Amino acid sequence: MSNSIGSKGQIRPVAVVGGTLIDGNGGAPQPDAVVLMEDGRFSAVGKRGAVKLPPSATVIDATGQFVLPGIMNGNVHLLDAIMMMGKGGAEYLARFEGHLHEAIEEAAQISLRGGCTTVFDTWNALVPVLKARDRINAGKVAGARIFAAGNIVGMGGPFSPDYSMQSREVISKTFADRMDTLFDAGVGRILSTLPPEEVRPIIRDYIAQGIDMLKVAISDHLVVMLGWQSPYLCFSERVLRVIVDETRRAGIPLLSHTLSVESLNLAVDFECDVMIHATITSLQPIPEDLLQRMVKGKGWSEIQPTTHGYQCHLDSTGHPWASYAGGAHEENTRRLIAAGAPIILGTDAGCTDPDILHDLPPEELVDRPWTIGSDHLVWMRAMVEQGMTPMNAILSCTREVARAYGMANDYGTVDPGKVADLIVVNRDPLADIARMSELSIVIKDGTPVDFERLPTTPLVTKYPRDADFKR
């Protein structure tokens, strides 16, 4: 592939020519298409011969291939949140303390390697994730574009009851407190003890730190301690109203964390833009009237499915995560798909420590939904298995994510004027959604990405860790 940088340091126009375009708008694919990108945005889209290419353009031949918008993942935790809820979290944070922003950047690079050009990190350590976001935006490091929420308002840090309080039995209190403070960022569990007039300035100050969206814990996150059937509401409705009002006043997206029917009902009542893991309702079916309100409401349901094969493994082994997407939660997913609810991609995925992956049985690695880089591919296959069409699966990973986050003017489809993020796959994903894994080209901000060389400087994934065995 030729370099897109001109002799004077100017970025040349880039044209992807001859592929079949699935533009993210839901219409029929456009064969023999030309997509022209200039100054980081799509400047022209049309049939070959209808789009005039500048003489200086770098031309990429996509004949016989399929061109799509860059994938947008509506819910990740680039520092792996799944580990924070069990094994691996303490050693992960201790090993990379002082370099957490680099671990986040590595995860963003792995996500970009898989074709995700944009990720929405909905729970992370605030300062490191904002630092990684800003470094990627400034072009200092490669990576998927990050939009970040920092902490989930109302939740504690990784060694609080919300994640892995049991880890405190085997680590120092000083380290645990330091990490909890880093993640808590002043908007943790203490807020549930305060009246509305004290919560308001705290939320206002938190938003002012530069978060891109705010995620509120409408219900608890005590699944490790109490299981799936012991949720409670974190805030009174009047405190929740203050949090919602301040988020709306700031003009940023409002996200909900819910684990029960009643908390989901409140998310719909407060018109949350994105309802994270909306189908996880403590093993209870979503009532039909609530489901219809979700279909007709203003928010999008972020759903986290598993493939049939992976769910069978979880069920057959009595795995603690078997109820994550199985049983009533799987039925909720099928019903929302069948009803035509607005749905977006989200996975909770992060950069899992290789030591943890090494400990897992082989069958638990196949279609693991929380592994960054392949998570979105697993998601699409799982959603198609549960009744979604391949086209709608693609839309739920592109246009619908942009709409949910209020960013449709800039992202989500291949249209003139929008940010030039796209991918090219070898074969038709509408015939088989698994073909989304056959990636041949990734372009972000109008610039081709050498995605096969990512991550550029492995930190978390640098393995084996055997330096101490060598002399």
Mean pLDDT: 95
Using only C-alpha atoms, the radius of gyration works out to: 22 Å
Low-confidence stretches: 1-9
Number of strands: 16
Distance between the first and last residues' Cα: 42 Å
- Percent of residues in beta strands? 15-25%
Q: Structural class of the secondary elements?
A: alpha/beta
Count the DSSP helices. Answer: 18
Oligomer: single chain
Helical content class = 25-40%
Main sheet record: 8 strands, mixed
Q: What spatial form do the alpha-carbon principal axes imply?
A: globular
Q: In brief, what are we looking at here?
A:
The protein has 18 helices and 16 strands.
Could you please describe the fold and organization of this structure?
The protein has helices at residues 81-84, 89-96, 100-113, 126-137, 173-184, 196-207, 223-226, 237-250, 261-269, 288-296, 308-316, 322-325, 328-339, 354-359, 362-365, 375-385, 390-396, 399-404; strands at 14-21, 30-38, 41-47, 58-61, 66-69, 71-76, 116-121, 145-148, 214-217, 254-257, 274-276, 300-303, 343-345, 422-425, 439-444, 447-448. Helices cover 33% and strands 17% of the residues. The protein has 471 residues and is α/β, with parallel strands linked by helices. The protein contains 18 helices and 16 strands. Mean pLDDT is 95; it is low at 1-9. The strands form 3 sheets. Strands 1, 2, 3, 4, 5, 14, 15 and 16 form an 8-stranded mixed sheet that branches. The chain starts with 13 loop residues before the first strand and ends in a 23-residue tail after the last strand. A hairpin with an 8-residue loop joins strand 1 (14-21) and strand 2 (30-38).
